[in-house]
Design brief:
The chain is mostly helical. It is built from 4 helices and no strands. The protein binds iron/sulfur cluster. The site of iron/sulfur cluster has 13 residues, from α2 and α3.
Amino acid sequence: MAPSTEAWQWQLDAVCRGKSSDVFFSPSGEGRTARRQREDEAKVLCEQCPVISQCRQFALATNEPFGVWGGMTARERSLRRTALKRAS
Ligand code: SF4
């Protein structure tokens, strides 16, 4: 299926739109404690976002391997995908 602008339309309402992505993505060499703090900060933003559901579904559907999307870390998305595979 060809990408459409509709598939990305939800991003126009994103809380993170126009903001730095630093809080959502891990810099190289980031330690465990710093990562957890950064991810918690990102999740606070996501919880206020009106398109959290669309963002989460997009990241799960595209197997997005990096960053916090829809209030979920990459590890949480990976665990969700594994659980869904086991359930099917
Ligand atoms: S849910 Fe989080 S990552 Fe997704 S668009 Fe909203 S603020 Fe950005």
